[in-house]
Amino acid sequence: MTLSQFNTLDNQTAYNHLFACCGSNEWASTMMEHFPFISEKDLVDYATEIWYDQCSETDWRASFTHHPKIGDVKSLTEKFAGKEQAGVAVATSHTIEALSQANTDYENKNGFIFIVCATGKSATEMLQILLDRLKNSADEELHIAMGEQQKISIIRFKKLITGGNFEFLKVSQITTHVLDTSVGLPGSNISIRLQAKRNNVWQTIAQGITNTDGRIADLLPQEKNLKPGSYKMVFDTGNYYAQQNIKTFYPEVAIIFNTFDETHYHVPLLVNPFGYNTYRGS
């Protein structure tokens, strides 16, 4: 379907498609106030503005209820322990059981299910992210989850309007790259938190783990720009080196930086067990 074809749909059908992208009545109804859409960029921009600036906690929580849970041991086994696909390693029974238990713990703690943009993530990566996010407060998790929902909505737009032009979409406004200078290799599987100050307290607003190239390209949803101000990126270097049985002087590295506009900000980290360096990259 192209955007032009989508724009010819009757209002109820168009609403149903939008609701399937993000299960919030308020969001979908407000989106329909702008229907038909002039361009794919307008579609995404309206979706972002409405989601972040016009929807409430009630609307965000409502959307979460339209996601299936990560699942119990049986469903997780069917998803992750079957035939290996796209180079993603088959999950062990231990990983699956831990993932199921962590999912239950998460829901009990926060009052809503674990939401993550899971595209391309293995069970092991999902478990690491889930265990990391279990350390957050419920308020932090609410805002992280709404960001993950926005990533999912954009993916669903592209699946709905397969003939659309989404080339305008860029990587996250904030990105990073970790290089372990002690071995000259990317720092992979490092948990990273992006934080902002709320009521003079640093709170996590986005979270992820570095890939095999030491990068996180989707820390923030595409087309989501932060307000100019001070932000902090926290790297869990302690756990990274502990997994290698290496002692480090820095259990974590926290980099505070300023944004001035809506341009892209790359915050690299060069790290070794006894030192680190950073700069604004490109």
How would you describe the overall organization of this protein?
About 2% of the residues have low confidence. The strands form two sheets. Strands 1, 2, 5, 8, 9 and 10 form a six-stranded mixed beta sheet that branches. Helix 6 crosses helix 7. With 282 residues, the chain is of the alpha+beta class. It is built from ten helices and ten strands. Helices cover 40% and strands 18% of the residues. The protein has two domains: 169 residues, Oxo-4-hydroxy-4-carboxy-5-ureidoimidazoline decarboxylase (UraD-like, Orthogonal Bundle), CATH 1.10.3330; 105 residues, Immunoglobulin-like, CATH 2.60.40.180.
Would you spell out the secondary-structure blueprint of this structure?
Layout: H1 3-7, H2 11-21, H3 25-32, H4 40-54, H5 57-64, H6 73-80, H7 93-110, H8 123-133, H9 138-160, E1 174-180, E2 185-186, E3 191-198, E4 201-209, E5 215-216, E6 229-235, H10 237-242, E7 253-259, E8 265-266, E9 269-272, E10 275-278
Parallel strand pairs: 1-8, 1-9
Antiparallel strand pairs: 1-2, 1-5, 3-4, 3-6, 6-7, 9-10
Helix pairs in contact: 2-3, 2-9, 4-9, 5-9, 6-7, 7-8
Alpha carbon gap, first and last residue: 36 Å
Q: Give a short account of the largest sheet.
A: 6 strands, mixed
Question: Could you give the order of the helices and strands?
Answer: HHHHHHHHHEEEEEEHEEEE
**Beta-strand segment tally:** 10
Structural class comes to alpha+beta
Total count of helical runs of at least 4 residues = 10
Fraction of residues in H or I helices: 40-55%
Low-confidence blocks of residues: 83-88
- The CATH architecture category of the largest domain equals Orthogonal Bundle
* CATH domain class name of the largest domain: Mainly Alpha
What is the rounded Rg? 20 Å
CATH superfamily of the largest domain: Oxo-4-hydroxy-4-carboxy-5-ureidoimidazoline decarboxylase
